[in-house]
Amino acid sequence: MNTGKDDWYWELYNSNLSPEMKEIFGYLYPTKQKMPSMLSCAIEISINRQSAKGFISMPLLAWKKIFLHSNWEINRAIINSHFIYYLPLLLSSTTLPAGMIQSLRTGDILIPDNQFFSPNGLGRLKIGNKWIYLQQSTAEILTFLVIHNKVQDMESTQSDANYPEIVSISSEDVSEQRQFMVQDTDFPDLSGIPVTVTLRAGTLEITLEQLHSLGPGSILAFCGSTPGYATLYYAERPLAHGELVDIEGELGLRITRMERF
């Protein structure tokens, strides 16, 4: 504690603190001693109709004790509740060789292996960290009834061991590679490159306020697609359009029109 002729002032200062302030900060006093790991923050305190702003620096351990001791609440940032959020109705996805995608033709039937919806309109849609379980209300219009929602468990990301090893390349290797590229004029075969495509049917337009209140019994209406039809996408680029078909309980796409790519 900082001792000196001003001690009387801080005794008086702390004796006049409100009970609410004492509960949060305890006994306050200044110090000229350099403390490790100091964290400085702007602070605003409101009690009843009175408020005050200031600047305070404390060691990290002191902040930790304050946060653990007092009943703090998150002061959520103000957002535009009328901001419109766009979300495609993702029916399924799959990964195919680039050559197979290029060979798709009208009349082909594609059955993606990652299915999010069944042929009878029952499925799930991921919004943020939630899975929204839906049931299509009617076959005539693209509306769905929310029957359940579930927060997705946080899972650890892939470890570095799952990624390709980074190999250092010397300047000699680069020189040899350049010579090889000059000598070999044939373009390499890229038909085996894996490409992830998605099957979508329409887009949901919903405000953040509506999204926050989403729950069982809510009705979601998707626009931009005819019921029973869907589009095959690579990223945001449409590749093919077609009719949704039931293939032994799996949702498939019978291609009726191809995009040029």
Automatic annotation (TrEMBL):
Superkingdom of origin: Bacteria
Transmembrane annotation, as ranges: none
Annotated ranges, domain Flagellar motor switch protein FliN-like C-terminal: 190-258
InterPro entries: FliN-like_C, SpoA-like_sf
Protein name in UniProt: Flagellar motor switch protein FliN-like C-terminal domain-containing protein
Highest classification ranks of the organism: Bacteria, Pseudomonadati, Pseudomonadota, Gammaproteobacteria, Enterobacterales
